[in-house]
Amino acid sequence: MPVFFWPLLAGGVGYVGGLFTQQTLSRALKVLVWGWVALFLIKQSGVLK
Fold it and tell me: Are the C-beta atoms of 20 and 26 separated by less than 8 Å?
């Protein structure tokens, strides 16, 4: 994954979150995406096999 992918992903999440008027849905979406990103990074670092 290129380094510039992560800021683009963060910007995309912010944009999609802005499209939703319900703040709880936006917050849940952000938590879900960041949880997925964290899990992906942990797997890439080799902590989880």
Answer: yes
Contact (Cβ atoms closer than 8 angstroms) between residue 34 and residue 47: no
The answer for 31, left when phi > 0, alpha when psi is -120 to 50, beta otherwise, is alpha
User: What six digits make up the tokens of 40?
Assistant: 């992906």
Task: Please give the model's pTM, rounded to 2 decimal places.
Answer: 0.45
Read off the DSSP letter of residue 47.
S
Percentage of residues in the chain with pLDDT exceeding 70?
55
